């Protein structure tokens, strides 16, 4: 099984000096073990509550209980928002002291502030039960070690707790973070193939007509699947035949990117997918295909990505580089077959409608896989059956969920094996997603800042992304701009703030401040200075990168990011390096004076 690269990152444990707490003692019986298993399953259920609201991310849930009675719960709504553990202890209040916290997965303190750990310690939690160690190597074992260093008892399923009673609880914890586990193990996003077919295995009639095979209830479930995905993949045939819109249509929340795969770029000049007002579209093709259409698509705001040879695995590796966790394939048999053969499809959702249409040449959901005997058939794992309206939903995995706990060593084990291993590249340090080792450098990191408004009054912003997006509309005498400013400021997550700002900028460019192109760098730099001066641990983290080139690794933002092949301007990385130089110079002057 492939492993993720890089070595573990070591951060200092929070400076807390609380005395060892005496845990609440409950009778250790079979019933108590079953009760604990149920509480862990509840933590996984709570973790799943954020699905569909914001871009897919690691799912964290925390349940605090005393002798089986739940006194507090919380879940991570999105990257850059209040952690599940802090929410749970706030709800539990004084009842948290001496209680047990149940976590579906080890906290991922990628911001160097240890909020998840310190909130549990300071609340007086005496014991923590964890379903999974964190699958990302630079975060694995860090929170567990920090908790134990504060005399908190930590029990991990499969290590400290090995009863068969916990098998279903472990499965729940694995399922809720299956996308992250697949991404960590195979270095591609978790991919789900979805299709609707008749009882005789057809996805359309001989003429290609397919509206509708499944029921309205089933189509509602498909919208939910889309909302849980970073991207939706279709082929050129689907665009030509169905002209789909591929939106989640749930009245808000996360909107996935639409990805079209077409080798020849034999696509229509006009299609619903070319309207990027509500959702972003990426067209992947082979190098040199139809330059005329590429230019037309670019003018419409559609991103075109060329590959030397277009294939499913390269596209998924590209999606991995973009930070995607989960991808939904809604393609026909000509594209699904090579995707399955290349090993990038991990799960299947098949909606079977009680209809028969026949037709020797009517298309089926999966094309030729080269199999000539039934013994070659691919068997689904962990199959589920569910009636959805008049249809039957059959789902299962083509590849088992990776359990990384036996194969990825903890940070302690790494240091014992090779003390010379450096946790970071000393020449180039990349950052992008907030769960990356240097996730604190991201605009999405959960570090509120206070910045003065036009009247000199300090306003608090949840993240830098909130501040940056809202300031596109500052000083514009237009009700729409003023409303956008307030909506962005109140957005529940940085992703939602970004989506609101970008969407309004595309739809109503006239309400964007006239000097935005010249002012945005100064606005970003002012916010960066505020963020790093407000949080000393972030300033120390930035200074620790001295001598390294900082690169914002966004493959699609060619202004703030470095681009897919280094073609981006990397202005965010440049500003961080400029700020680092200023901080180090000021520190040097202070040292000389003293």
Describe it:
The protein has 594 residues and is α/β, with parallel strands linked by helices. The chain folds into three domains: 30-176, Cytidine Deaminase, domain 2; 186-369 and 378-397, 3-Layer(aba) Sandwich (Dihydrofolate Reductase, subunit A); 411-593, YbiA-like (Tetracycline Repressor, domain 2). The protein has helices at residues 30-47, 84-92, 115-123, 142-149, 167-176, 178-186, 216-227, 236-242, 291-299, 312-321, 333-341, 411-417, 464-470, 479-489, 494-507, 516-534, 536-543, 571-593, and strands spanning 61-66, 69-75, 100-103, 127-130, 153-156, 190-198, 231-235, 257-261, 281-286, 303-307, 326-329, 347-353, 381-388, 391-397, 428-431, 449-452, 458-461, 549-552. The strands form four sheets. Strands 10-9-8-7-11-6-12-14-13 form a nine-stranded mixed sheet. It is globular, with a radius of gyration of 25 Å. The relative contact order is 0.11. It is an enzyme of class 1 (oxidoreductase). It catalyses: 5-amino-6-(5-phospho-D-ribosylamino)uracil + H2O = 5,6-diaminouracil + D-ribose 5-phosphate; 2,5-diamino-6-hydroxy-4-(5-phosphoribosylamino)-pyrimidine + H2O = 2,5,6-triamino-4-hydroxypyrimidine + D-ribose 5-phosphate. Pathway: Cofactor biosynthesis; riboflavin biosynthesis; 5-amino-6-(D-ribitylamino)uracil from GTP: step 3/4. Keywords: Glycosidase, Hydrolase, Multifunctional enzyme, NADP, Oxidoreductase.
